[in-house]
Amino acid sequence: MGCVTVQPSETMNAKPCHRRWLVIIGALKLVKGVLFLALGFALLRILHRDFYMIALRVSEALRLDPERIAVSKLLEKATLLDVHRLKQMSGLIFAYACLDFIEGTGLVLEKRWAEYFTLVLTTAFLPLEAIKLAHHPNRWTFLLLLINVLLVVYLASLLRGQHIARKNAGFADARV
Question: CB neighbours of 65 closer than 8 A, spacing ≥ 6?
Fold first, then answer.
């Protein structure tokens, strides 16, 4: 399937195919932001309720066996949550949703700053994801880490290519 013809903005020197991938990444960031926003509000909604009982009902609704180690550990951790901790968690989730909205909006609007912003943020979270994978290895954490590494490589190569193209354009202008 060929690339859709897209007119890059004046400040962008990337090919239309690269623009399309950045818009797709931006749209996914916006969807992720909406999901985190919903999660933040869900946490605020259960502030003054028994979180353990809610977790137990959810595990029963999903037909998860509370005797399994992973489920029992999750239920055990649910007993440690209090109102203050839930407020902290929802605040962090809202902040993360904000970052996703900023990244997504900038990428969809094809802004160069958003490419750098996404590269820096994604790179900053890679060590945390690697630590999580080392402590709790599973295929989903590995897949998330792999996707983010590929995103960093893609953005870095795209931005490097744009930098070289601008540098060469400036050099060509100086020769004329």
Answer: 71
